[in-house]
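Handout, section B. The chain below has 73 residues.
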Amino acid sequence: MKNYQFAVCLNNQNYPASLELHKIYRVIPDEEAQLDGDLRIIDESGEDYLYPATYFSLIELPIDVQKSLLVVA
């Protein structure tokens, strides 16, 4: 299985309908966004959008937890 990247939301200011505090979100690789200080996140709408990287903390998860989160998403 591919190793996916995830982040936990630490701040949802300005985005309360799109982001839930303390929720784990999948991160989509986007080097350009990272250079601008953003992360591409699959949010509550199920779509990927750019958010400030400071709103999240990247986390490493075991493969079985990743699989579980991908099924839920």
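Note. The longest strand covers residues 5-9. Compare this with the example in section A.
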